[in-house]
Amino acid sequence: MKLSNSRPSRVGRNPFVHRLRLTVTETIKLGLMSVTVFPVRLLLVSFFMLLAWPFAFAASLGRSEFVIEPQSWWRRLTDLCLRVIMRAMWFCGGFHWIKVKGERAAPSEVPILTVAPHSSYFDAIPVTMTMCSIVTKLESRSIPVWGTLISYIRPVFVFRVDQDSRRKTVEEIKRRAQSGGEWPQIMIFPEGTCTNRSGLILYKAGAFIPGLPVQPVVLRYPNQLDTVTWTWQGPGAFKILWLTLCQPHNPMEIEYLPVYTPSNEEKENPALFANNVRRLMAKALELPLTELSFDDRDIILSKGPLCIQDYSGLLELNQLVCRLGLRAGTSGTVLDEQAHRARKLQGGRLTLEEFGQFLSLPVTETLAQVHSLFDESGDGQIDARHFVVALSTVHRPSESMETLRLAFRMFESEEEDGEVLEDDLAAVLEIMLGVKEAELSGLFLTLGRPDTGRITYDELVHYIEEYPHFIRDCLDYKDHPRKFCCVRRQCCNGHNHDKDD
């Protein structure tokens, strides 16, 4: 699979990984704070959270989720009490002074606030300071104590089990946004997930579909030791709470940028609207734009014995198949059915029109881009089996052995003896790993089968189990990191892998 020359690689620093390294001095301070300040702060934070619960519960009684009613005097008083209690809670947690820049626009002027970067559950601070609504999963309502506080701010709940959830969420956002300020402002984190603040990932379009003015809000945590970042790979939720409560002070900045009014073109194109707002916020934050999205996280965090080495081509494919609607509709059953049809073709190559028929999709520019990724020879034809391997890889990047099993079923010989050719296996591994010019001679030499040029799935699995660092130590491909390393590694067969010797 080749990467389009018209699009640069989207891989920079991984935004879904946070590595926290403590110096000796910081470790000593942490130990002292853990037995002195931490227990007191944890007790106070818990107290204020429990204190807030009866106020939120009482104010939520008898309130409709779909109709906004006039605020009675006692509900306004409850709202004020909750703001004071929540601010006291954050103060006890070490967020003593929260610097606020700019002015928040009125709900009647701007119904939606777009907040970034989203990197921690401490991003709830501006929510509790403003009592804005948020978009959150329905399961959040079931969290003890905190779920009642979430329900109080009248969030837009996302029903993830409902396949039509995205459409319903967008419709509810539009309904509230077009109420003329009757509903509370909606505070939306358009990245859709937590990152490490190394850059702004692609925004989801939900906040921008209504085509109404939005106010960008940027968050900063200018602390020397980053204990607040909570993302997909790194310290867990409790560890972050412990480390943060052990800091003498946790600075935070909230900046309200000028209201952004979309042009007619942006109103018609929410993706353009979202990207332009993202650029504006990245400039204010002095952060780079990262051309990764929430849907890319599994690919860039892939694990397993055949984890992806170069994400560029697979990330591009993932973006295209999402645009075609293939990612959402893909399951193990669908992949098995596609693999069965691809095997029947017996290596027959497909034109763009035939590829569209294979996927039951009309020929579009996006489909043509997908087709071109697999047109290695440039003759306008592709092997459908290569596409199925790639689709399986982006759909379940951490289940590489399942993708490998699928590939063996498609590429096995006509005798159905389970064996595949060396060249076919090399092509499969190139797609799964995102590499070029994979060389398997060392593998076949180790197996004692350098002349047959064939291998079964069970043999390969046994080999990988015996040599778990097979990619690093035993596989050769173009631009392998080993080729630039001064330290020589021993190959799996006991011989030095440096070809210059």
TrEMBL record:
Domain of life: Eukaryota
Any GO CC annotation of this UniProt entry: membrane
A matching Pfam family: Acyltransferase
Location relative to the cell: Membrane
Residues in coiled coil: none
Gene Ontology biological-process entries: phospholipid biosynthetic process
Matching InterPro entries: EF_hand_dom, LPCAT1-like, Plipid/glycerol_acylTrfase
Domain EF-hand stretches: 362-397
Any one GO molecular function term: 1-acylglycerophosphocholine O-acyltransferase activity
Keyword tags: Acyltransferase, Lipid biosynthesis, Lipid metabolism, Membrane, Phospholipid biosynthesis, Phospholipid metabolism, Transferase, Transmembrane, Transmembrane helix
Chain ranges passing through the membrane: 38-59
Family the UniProt entry places it in: Belongs to the 1-acyl-sn-glycerol-3-phosphate acyltransferase family.
Stored PANTHER family: LYSOPHOSPHATIDYLCHOLINE ACYLTRANSFERASE 1, PHOSPHOLIPID ACYLTRANSFERASE
Name assigned to this protein: Lysophosphatidylcholine acyltransferase 1-like
